[in-house]
Design goal:
single chain, 320 residues, alpha/beta, TIM Barrel, 6-stranded parallel sheet, 3-stranded parallel sheet, 11 strands, binds zinc ion
Length: 320
């Protein structure tokens, strides 16, 4: 048990396919986590809106949908006490591990359900949410999504977005900057009193997708004590690629170590959210194959940092 993966979309798959989280037909399920060497898994509530809501046949408001997904998460995690238990701080991960259990961490992708209400952030925290991405692919009450258009990509956080970051810092909810504009990223770098996370992004120098981080962003993230989780999405790893290859994952890790430092590296697989990618390692259970390849370029201590040490530090610095 050693891997902490900061992002997956398995809960949405579970919502749609209505199969158990324990052994359902997902890239991540609890049995695959166990097999692959999971120490903790972040389960994102991807709050569907706009075209994503249409695609999923969801007519509920983002807030109503969020509430439904919290209930689903609690039922699925609570129903498998022999395998996994929720973690609300770094210490919980260690005590679950001592009992032979994996940990689950509840996160939110897209703060759209906050909808301009600062109290909602407190409510989400009370639900157990310990990390939240400020945006997804649409404008919300906090800010704007990443864009290929440099003018749009430079857009800053809204005044409410600054307040939201402050409240998240006070509570101990990690600010996730994946999907955000570069202008918003800069605001978080300046305003956040706690280290931040880009939960599922790669290096722009190797894959030109706008969701990836530029060298400048990687450097700033590292200087601020933040971390980036490598996304396994094939076209993020390499332009026009359809194969999510182990070689490309390793390339991004080596590159980010050079730009942001070893302290900034972590996992953010995005499994169950990268439908178009063919996975060389099949699914989460194939994680050991990625680690074997990585071992040719990183020392054992470095691998420990990537696998869990860096996340545990940032989790501790945010949530205690
Ligand atoms: Zn995402």
């Amino acid at each position: 048990m050693k891997i902490i993966d900061m992002h997956c979309d398995t809960l949405l798959e579970c919502y749609q396919k209505k199969q158990p989280l324990r052994n359902g037909p997902y890239q991540i399920n609890l049995e695959k986590l166990k097999k692959g060497g999971c120490l903790a898994q972040c389960f994102a509530i991807f709050v569907v809106s706009h075209d994503a809501a249409d695609r999923c046949g969801v007519s509920a408001t983002p807030y109503e949908f969020y509430r439904e997904m919290v209930a689903l998460y609690q039922k699925e995690i609570g129903g498998n006490p022999d395998l996994i238990a929720p973690a609300f701080c770094a210490k919980d991960i260690m005590s679950n591990q001592a009992k032979g259990l994996m940990s689950s961490i509840l996160t939110v992708e897209d703060a759209v359900a906050v909808d301009g209400c600062i109290e909602r952030i407190d409510e989400f925290f009370a639900d157990g949410v310990r990390m939240m991405s400020l945006t997804w692919n649409y404008e919300n009450s906090i800010g704007y999504p990443n864009s290929a258009d440099p003018v749009l990509h430079a857009k800053k956080l809204k005044p409410f977005g600054i307040q939201a970051v402050e409240r998240m810092n006070e509570l101990g909810m990690i600010v996730d900057v994946s999907h955000l504009t570069e202008g918003g990223f800069d605001d978080v770098i300046q305003r956040s009193s706690k280290p931040l996370i880009a939960s599922h992004s790669c290096a722009r120098a190797l894959g030109s997708h706008q969701r990836n981080l530029t060298d400048r962003q990687l450097k700033l993230l590292g200087e601020k004590g933040g971390i980036v989780g490598i996304n396994f999405c094939a076209p993020f790893l390499e332009d026009y690629a359809t194969l999510s290859s182990i070689e490309n994952i390793v390339k991004h890790m080596v590159y980010i170590r050079e730009k942001a430092g070893i302290e900034a590296l972590a996992w953010g697989s995005d499994l169950d959210g990268i439908d178009g990618s063919i996975l060389e390692y099949e699914d989460y259970a194939g994680f050991p194959r990625i680690l074997d390849a990585l071992a040719m370029y990183f020392t054992e201590d470095e691998l420990d940092q990537i696998n869990h040490g860096n996340f545990l530090r940032v989790f501790r610095d945010n949530a205690g």
